[in-house]
Design brief:
Chain lengths: 441, 309
């Protein structure tokens, strides 16, 4: 390793034994609890209402006594107080800061992010980019959606690593896909950081232009994609189609979660240096054991800016059992979808990701858009709307899908074909039956 | 060596200018007068046409041999696309101009400022060091303001209104093409804009909101609207002064001329030379904006370059 690279290479924390990580978390969380209790009215009131004294939290298990809160609570508080800063932000006037926003799927809220926050989160995120192959001296394509906290962290990663960066004009919208293609072709980056749905928009634009994606991406060694879950087959197909070395999926949320695939691609290692993750039962609120799906609850470990302590992201996720082949000790997780996109079929709760896994078993259907139609009443069978593939016998495909769905997730399905469905975009894989009927009239 | 000679020497490292200025004999350009007379202007079309011919496809005016850079694709419809490359020193020079614009708009320490534009617009990426790699201090950091951005897409207007409601920025910068959508959203929510911000600043690349459009929006929205001119190919920014209503910019950052035309019109195309851009030198860039130069002397910026448009 060259000297410059050695200076910024991530430390060995991702190989700490479990006990050391637990001790680290307990220490950080206790510090944070004391801080929020003293400084932040939002938490002081919540802790007082729940009759929790921060000093009584002596184990990580004790954390469950602190009530969770969700985006709705945040939005309600912003509206009630009529201001973005409603008491969960540590504001140090001497530390320059920016305000970022959440994407607004559930309503927009604000994040107060000072320079100290950027330094800690950015240096933590550097590890993810390092795992994905970004090294000093390379060139990276990034988008700068200045409203999003990822831009704040990413700019720090770039500075620390000393990489050059190219920024395509516009934002993550299909109509800007041409700009991304031009920027990749012209600036020949080694590394691309991108919103996954934008990658699909780029592929569609390549088809429209008659350009081979592998030619456009010929300089690119690896891609870090965020913003939507990718199935293993979908990733393999994208790697093949783009001709890149590898694609790494990152997941996270602006409130504080970062989790990242390593080269083993068996789940996402939680970046436990900045965040503590629990999976809870959405009904009882009780923590769930490893391997069980539930709501993802996060606690940020950074005492600067907006602080989220037991924040229920309303994402459906799981902490994966067992050790990763890469040898790193940071726990791994999957996040499948928003809880709101879950549907119940004959007593089985499933999300579109479960369907995607089945569809991807058929090479003709990998990465083709589909939608789950949610009924107004109890559903005994899953209704699937799928885009017709370019080739293959539809009846045969239909029968194979039905068989796959019967095996896992163990549901009966009705399938309908559509000539074309919209490009996969954020959270559009579940449509309500009433909207679907209206569209067909 | 004066700044013109330094600029020409730097520009000679870029394929476009090396070819373009080959005819200039050493010593023929000594001052601004000879600079204007001898150095031919560069058009947007020229930048686009020279791009495929240059050694790298990035930019025919990119100087080789400087450190890590941020390369920005520009908002032009040319094919091929155009880029500028900026290192720390370039960004420092560029941000001084934005800071000047913000000061002119009345922004001071402790103020909040909103930007409804793409993150790839200089209005956004120069706002804070947190947004852009290698930007040591953004305009907000220099002035002590708190910035918030919204993506420059018209259908993000509801979120822009959330910013107005809950952040209450002193000044709200907005892309010209988002103004109508924002006005509709404000009317839909029956909001009195003056309760939430003191002024809007409408910005556009190589164009300006017309007086008629401005007064129509001012009537609709009930707050003053100022204009900010971006000429991204020249890394140029100029802000309309609330007092004299002319565009102001920093004399230390640019040399601005007008290119006289045969019809002797009162306003002629603006020609911009950029003094701070080291990686992508800009020598006599002929913009698509017409205006006339006015003497300095406005109390809001006594030394500023002033342009009437």
């Amino acid at each position: 390793m060259k000297n410059g690279a050695r200076r910024v290479a991530p430390d060995a924390m991702d190989r700490w034994p479990e006990e050391r990580l637990a001790k680290f978390h307990l220490h950080k969380i206790r510090q944070l609890l004391r801080h929020v209790y003293r400084q932040l009215p939002f938490y002081r009131q919540r802790l007082a209402r729940a009759k929790v004294d921060p000093e009584q939290v002596k184990t990580l298990g004790d954390l469950a006594r602190i009530p969770t809160f969700s985006k709705q609570d945040v939005l309600q508080e912003i509206r009630r107080q009529g201001r973005f800063d409603f008491g969960l932000e540590t504001i140090a006037r001497r530390d320059p800061a920016v305000l970022c926003m959440t994407s607004g799927t559930l309503g927009s809220s604000f994040l107060y992010l000072p320079r100290k926050w950027r330094a800690l989160r950015g240096d933590s995120l550097l590890r993810a980019y390092w795992w994905a192959g970004l090294r000093p001296g390379m060139r990276m394509l990034m988008a700068v959606p200045a409203w999003h906290s990822l831009a704040v962290q990413e700019s720090r990663v770039i500075e620390r690593l000393g990489v050059s960066t190219v920024v395509p004009w516009g934002t993550f919208l299909p109509r800007n896909a041409g700009n991304f293609i031009d920027a990749i072709s012209d600036a020949t980056p080694d590394f691309v950081s991108i919103f996954l749905p934008m990658l699909f928009a780029i592929l569609a634009e390549c088809r429209r232009r008659g350009a081979k994606p592998a030619t456009v991406f010929k300089s690119v060694q690896s891609i870090l994609a965020v913003g939507a879950p990718m199935t293993p087959r979908s990733r393999q197909q994208l790697v093949h189609e783009l001709g890149v070395g590898d694609i790494f999926e990152g997941l996270g949320n602006p409130e504080g979660l970062t989790a990242m695939e390593c080269a083993s691609h068996c789940g996402h290692h939680i970046f436990v240096d900045c965040c503590f993750v629990e999976i809870i039962d959405p009904k009882s609120g009780a923590p769930l054991p490893v391997g069980q799906r539930g709501n993802v609850v996060i606690t940020t470990l950074i005492p600067h800016g907006s602080i989220f302590l037991r924040y229920d992201t309303e994402d459906l996720g799981v902490i994966l059992p067992g050790a990763c082949a890469c040898g790193r000790s940071w726990p791994r997780m999957e996040v499948y979808d928003r809880r709101a996109n879950e549907v119940e079929i004959a007593g089985q709760r499933i999300v579109p990701y479960d369907v995607r896994i089945c569809l991807d078993e058929l090479p003709e259907l990998v990465n083709l858009p589909f939608a789950v139609v949610r009924g107004e009443t109890k559903m005994e069978r899953l209704t699937l709307l799928m885009q017709k593939p370019a080739s293959g016998n539809l009846e045969e495909i239909q029968a194979r899908i039905a068989n796959l769905l019967r095996k896992k997730p163990n549901v009966e399905a009705i399938q309908e074909w559509a000539e074309e469905l919209p490009q996969r975009w954020k959270g559009v894989t579940v449509i309500e039956e009433k909207d679907w009927r209206r569209a067909r009239v | 060596m004066n700044r013109i000679q330094i600029l020409l020497q730097r520009a000679a490292k870029a394929p476009l200018y090396r070819k373009k200025f080959a005819h200039l004999k050493p010593g023929t350009v000594r001052d601004l007068r000879s600079f204007s007379a001898k150095v031919p202007p560069t058009r947007l079309e020229e930048l686009a046409a020279e791009t495929p011919k240059s050694a790298g496809p990035l930019s025919p005016r990119l100087c080789a041999g400087r450190g890590p850079r941020a390369i920005f694709q520009l908002e032009y419809d040319t094919q091929p696309a155009l880029y500028v490359a900026l290192d720390r020193a370039d960004l420092r020079g560029y941000v001084e101009v934005l800071k000047h614009c913000w000061s002119l708009a009345g922004l001071r320490k402790g103020d909040r400022v909103a930007i409804f534009d793409y993150g790839t617009s200089p209005l956004s990426y120069l706002a804070a060091s947190s947004f852009t790699p290698y930007l040591d201090r953004g305009a907000a950091d220099l002035l002590g303001c708190l910035p918030v951005c919204n993506d420059g897409v018209a259908n993000m207007s509801p979120r822009a209104v959330e910013i107005l409601r809950y952040v209450r920025p002193r000044v709200f910068f907005i892309r010209h093409d988002c103004l109508h959508a924002l006005a509709v959203e404000i009317e839909r929510q029956a909001l009195r804009l003056a309760d939430y911000t003191q002024a809007l600043v409408a910005a556009e690349n190589e164009s300006l909101l017309s007086d008629a459009e401005r007064s129509s929006f001012e009537k609709r929205l009930g707050v003053p609207i100022y204009r900010l001119l971006r000429i991204d190919a020249a890394m140029f920014l100029a802000m309309e002064c609330p007092r004299c209503r002319m565009l102001h910019t920093r004399r230390d950052s640019y040399f601005v001329e007008t290119l006289p035309e045969e019809d002797d019109a009162a306003e002629s195309p603006l020609v911009v030379t950029n003094w701070f851009a080291g990686n992508s030198p800009t020598v006599r860039y002929l913009s698509q904006v017409r205006g006339s130069l006015k003497p300095s002397g406005c109390p809001r910026g006594p030394k500023d370059l002033r342009i009437a448009v």
